[in-house]
Design brief:
2 domains; Glutathione S-transferase Yfyf (Class Pi), Chain A, domain 2; 213 residues; Glutaredoxin
Length: 213
């Protein structure tokens, strides 16, 4: 079987989600860097893989995909290893709901508003009011995290008793938040704090941690 190729920059949260899924499956893969800082995701070579100009893109055995949700689900179904999708329909629904929250609310509030002004300032307009951006994003970030805490309850993972794609979606987002003063948002939530410490012991997490600077 051909080795899958992941196209994207290592510091992308969504690229890391796909890589973590492959690591959890113990599947060899190739990471081809597409520099967002240099705008390579908007160049013809990458637009041929993903016409929307975002990362990641993915190739495997003649299958070409973009959008993390599609790629991660393909990885879960196409490769051997522990399943990353709960069999229980209620837990599966929770997994899908958490992924949707991250896609539509969490990524924007936590990464683009709370994290980016602190860690990725050069990507913002030079006249951007960074503190105003952080302040605007913090309430939604808090709401997302509190909902994850509520849905997880006493379970060890976000969607129940076993690792799922929901966990792999949230880890890269929380990783960056924990590098900012707003790491306190997590410390207020004992369940998520426990989850975060546990996730950081997984090889898939340590192997894919982005190296900044």
């Amino acid at each position: 079987m051909a080795v899958p190729i992941v196209y994207g920059t290592p510091f992308s949260t969504y690229v890391r989600t796909v890589r973590m899924a492959l690591e959890e499956k113990h599947a060899a893969y190739e990471l081809v860097d597409v520099s967002v800082l240099d705008g390579e995701q908007k160049q013809p070579a990458h637009l041929a893989r993903n016409p929307f100009g975002t990362v990641p893109a993915f190739e495997h055995d003649g299958v070409t995909l973009y959008e993390t949700s599609a790629i991660a689900r393909y990885v879960d179904q196409a490769f051997e290893g522990a399943t990353l999708t709960p069999e229980d329909p209620r837990q599966r629904a929770h997994m899908n709901q958490i992924i949707s929250i991250i896609d539509y609310h969490g990524y924007r509030s936590i990464i683009l508003q709370v994290v980016a002004p602190r860690l990725f300032g050069p990507l913002l307009p030079p006249d951007a009011d960074k503190e105003a951006i952080v302040a605007a994003g913090r309430p939604m970030a808090e709401l997302c995290l509190s909902e994850f805490e509520r849905m997880m309850g006493d379970a060890p993972y976000l969607a129940g008793g076993s690792l799922s794609l929901a966990d792999l979606y949230l880890v890269p987002v929380v990783h960056y938040m924990m590098m900012t003063p707003d790491e306190a948002l997590l410390h207020r939530l004992p369940g998520l704090t426990r989850w975060w410490r546990s996730m950081n012991e997984r090889p898939s997490v340590t192997k894919t941690a982005p190296q900044l600077g």
